[in-house]
Amino acid sequence: MKKAWVVLLLLLNGCQIRTLNPHSQVAEDQAMLIYLSFAIMIVVMAVVFILLFRFAWKYKQTAKNKNDVPEEINSNKRLEITWTLFPVLLLAILAVPTILVTYQVSPKSTSEAEGEATDEAAIHIQVTAERFDWTFTYENGRQSDRLVLPVNKQAVLHLQSEDVIHSFWVPELGGKQDVIPGKEILFKVTPEKTGTFLGKCAEFCGVNHSLMRFDTNVLQEQAYRTWLQEE
Ligand SMILES: [Cu+2]
Prior knowledge:
Elements: H1 2-13, H2 25-58, H3 77-105, E1 108-109, H4 110-113, E2 123-130, E3 133-137, E4 143-144, E5 147-150, E6 155-161, E7 166-170, E8 174-179, E9 185-189, E10 195-201, E11 213-219, H5 221-229
Helix pairs in contact: 2-3
Bound molecules: copper (II) ion.
């Protein structure tokens, strides 16, 4: 029994990748959607299971009712309206924030984003995925295998792939975002906390896919500037 719990905990932990530990607005919005749909699911499950057990108990066969012929009921307006409106209401509660957030956080390709206002002070980083590593190129030309970002400042990541479809994913900052060959995709993120967050490719891209991991370091702005100048 103990073993089963350990296995379950390991599965839930996802080995270092922590999805529900958001440190950016995008990641917070995504986590909120997960919690909301989970809460709705719990409500539905509770109703279904309570009714299931209640009816199984209430209408169980006994020596007394064994030969009863149940009354035939053709319709019940009140019940029918309830079980139609209730799911509609739940779906609406789920749909409105989902659509709003999805449109808001969806990354766009460069051509789609043309003419769209970007933060003047935002930093731009070229992110190149190829089998099987990531290269991050900064504004001063510095290249690195790690993503380094200043805290509380918008970063515009220009995602590009050299070969096949990869997926950019730093769960604590948001994502996952497919990286598609022949198309540059902009992913905007503003990290809200300093620290090191694990990122990885989330699209199976070949035999060494699992090696496509990278560290994301979120630094204070001054430390970021210093790091940029380092060799
Ligand atoms: Cu990949």
